[in-house]
## 1
Amino acid sequence: MERRTLLTGAAGALATIAGCVGSSPETPDDGPAATDTPTATPAAPTITARSLEPREECPEPGSASIAAEGSTVTVEGCIVGKNGCMVASLASATYDAEADELAVRVATRDDTDEDEMCTQQLVERGYTVTVEFDGGLPGTTTVTHDGVDGEQQVAQRQTGE
């Protein structure tokens, strides 16, 4: 019983001095504190689709051009493969939000069956890569080829709005 009386008395004493603690007479009460509302930063673009379509025509070997329209970045290029069985393939298309850059990497890959023979000559493979975005376009697009000459950057362009 004495413990309850002691606890009740301590709680009452704390409640009595609670109004005196926390603000001093030197700081007037101006109402609710103003809060800094964060400025809404626009959402970074996100890739919604990516594809590579082979093309019959091949512009200058080892080159690429970049175009941006609406919510789409289009890359048209020509990669060189080591033999007649090599085809253009989309190795990657990634967006780096921190750098605001789309990196497109086109490679060649062997598209043969085990018993198929290939011509032993360099081949030029045309392609069109399409990358669709939601939330705007990347500021920059860079295209890299990984073909017969190894990995090389072949194009870069400002694509953002």
## 2
Amino acid sequence: MKNIFLIRHSNAEEISAQNDDFHRKLTKKGIEKAVVMAEEVRSFYSTRTTFLSSSAPRALQTAEIFADVLGYSVEKIIKRDFLYHYYSFEQLIQYLSGMKPESVWVFGHNPMMADTASKLSTRCYDSFPKCAVAGFSFQSENFEDITINTGKLLFYQKPPK
């Protein structure tokens, strides 16, 4: 059985002349929200997990906070630029192909989080709020065998306002 957890980055600084979209970091509120959400989903964490994050600072910081709270080694977080840019469901599954962990926690951005969530199960997501977390399980033994709408929604947790 395989699991995929989707986590949208938490609240970040606004875009400005000195701060382009890619380089935005989490705000104090974003940091606090990420800690709360990591605690909320702690029971779904397994040691047979890989963290995969967008290389954008706000997503990576969110992944690092979850790692600290859950006991995952920050040094083991895999950073990938493609998670910042638009990617398709098929491209994500192709990237995960051959990975051996039971679970992958993917830290990224909208609209890809909402798009991917809507393709992992029959549940439709109109939006994926900042720091929302959705977990899906699959009867597949390999990530490459996952196809559209074959996941079972384990949970969908929105952060407190």
## 3
Amino acid sequence: MKKIVVIGGGIVGCLSAINLKEKGFQVSILDQSEIGQESSSAAAGILFPLLPWDYDDSIYQLCINSDRSYEALSKRLIEETGCDPEFKKSGMLLKQKIDRQGMSEWSKKNQFNVEERKVGDDSYFYFPDVCQISPSKLMKALKKLMVNLKIEIIENFKLTPIKSQHKTIIEWPSENNQSIGADFYVLATGAWTGLIHQDFLGNIYPVRGQMIQFKKNDIELPHIIYGDNSYVLQQKDGAILAGSTRENVGFSRVINPEAINILQKKARSLVPKLENIELDKHWTGFRPGTNENLPYIMKDNFYENLFINSGHYRYGLTMAPESANRITKLIMQESI
């Protein structure tokens, strides 16, 4: 049985590890901190690439069946772990000027249901099939599932940048003078990819996103609302979230008060009932940005037993199921 080490414990790494385990590999997953503690848990949980007609079509192809994948996965997680990741079909109301022709052509091509709705003198578009999930609860459930599947979980294990001159990586060293060996490695380290693989330095880079959550209240939002390049959504437990910023500030976690104020103003513009609701908390995450907004899902150009599954930028959660499928197929072809 060949051994695979998945490096990076976000949603992309976890789903890759589960796929590979279920294909018969011996799998370990490691993270420099704890599983699911970075950008995956910091996300809002919208399972749809916002304004997909503005992107290269290949981006939507990575997202196309994510709602079905997560619906099935959620049922499995509830049955096998007892944890509910709170998947729901909420729909999304689009309150923003857009490329109407581009949206129309995209929706027809992809057979995606779009409804036009009138609210007073204004006309909006509604996407009834958009779904959402709770990222933090999803990651906790996935960790339990990996334990059940006997996937070895290694946390707080920070690897050093790979410097081997040989095309096959026998062992990958860590900062504490240990190392980990495998037949294959999968690099799913998101925004940190360039720090341990120099070929991706500058090609995958951190883009900080700040999110806010309002204090518990009686407001009910029947669907996600998107407008002014921002969104507001309500989770199953009633929490109302709004986001998010896009800041090229490296790995700085320093909170930007001005950005928080802007997020509040936008959220209250989209949902006026939030005007007198105070903030409960705010947080940040580091998305793995790429120059063309396209992830790297590939065999490494030099190392024969290293595969890359990283750079998913804003849509890592949505792209994760298909990304995991694709990287699994690549490795299986190499392992024959």
